[in-house]
Amino acid sequence: MGTRVRVFVDYQNVYHGARDAFGGRDSSGRVQEPPTFGHIRPARFGLLLKQLGDSVDPERTLESVRLFRGEPVAGKAHPKLQASFQRQVGIWRALEPAVITVTRPLRYSPSSWGPDGRPNAWDSGEEKGIDVLLALGMVLGAERDEYDVAVVASGDTDLIPAIDEVVRIGKRVENAVWKPAGGNAYSLKSTERSIWVHRMTAKHFEWVRDDTNYSVERSDPASL
User: Fold this and answer.
1) Could you report how far apart the first and last alpha carbons of the chain are, in Å?
2) Total structural domains within the chain
């Protein structure tokens, strides 16, 4: 059966991390890249993280890739943003059964009100509870012996208690983070034991990046 590797992806963390690490910047330091820059092909990303450990454990097999992501809400998010999200996630779910996408509605706050006192515009939305869902997925999967290695693609320190619990259960945990050229890559640490960190470079990003414009209705990448 080999060593079962399950990859847990905090998608927005990975997306913004890639933009910060590898995106071009203007004179004020802001990332200049288009919104498509930073997206990844989930199946390739999972395969990459499986392969990065093959030299130490050649028996590794990719059990699944679990993506956790906030979902734009109809009536509050821009219609094109919601449609783009639905196309992207729909393609993930249709083309790659090993990729499991877990979504949770974004939380919005009113940004303006009409004459009747009711909100008529909303902010861009905020992810709430994604880290909790990812943490639960890690711990429950470990308790049920669904995997041997959890690779956590995130730099969110809120996940450290879940990482500690998975280690206590007896599973191995690895962390995956982007490493900018000439810079440092912040990684997660367990209080239980040292964990292996995959510091992914621009070369790794080029292999997994997805530049598909999902705002175009007929977006249909050949493969993930």
Assistant:
1) 25
2) 1
